[in-house]
Amino acid sequence: MTSPDARMLASQNIVIILCGNKKDLDADREVTFLEASRFAQENELMFLETSALTGENVEEAFVQCARKILNKIESGELDPERMGSGIQYGDAALRQLRSPRRAQAPSAQECGC
């Protein structure tokens, strides 16, 4: 599946990262860094080379995705309260903290106590 396919099936605001795995096996490389980074740029993807063996950039891939999603929320490009945004808070108490539109006390259904 290419990124345009993913964007058609999901949201136009989807955050996609291309991870070139096995960075530690540079001698066995089939795709150059330049080829992969060019593909990522042409398809508006984030790109990192990672190594599961050494752990290099594995956590960074998740951090960069989360940071990009947060930036989109803060800029108003993504609205977590909008149905179909793809963003969902895991805890009802967090919805109260993050949403300025809902300043009233939580209802009995939303209370996490």
From TrEMBL:
A GO term for molecular function: GTPase activity
GTP-binding found in the keyword field: yes
Coiled-coil residue windows: none
Gene3D superfamilies (alphabetical): P-loop containing nucleotide triphosphate hydrolases
Domain of life: Eukaryota
Keyword entries, A-Z: GTP-binding, Nucleotide-binding
Record-linked InterPro entries: P-loop_NTPase (IPR027417), Rab_GTPases_membrane_traffic (IPR050209), Small_GTPase (IPR001806)
Protein name according to UniProt: Ras-related protein Rab-4A isoform X2
Species name: Neomonachus schauinslandi
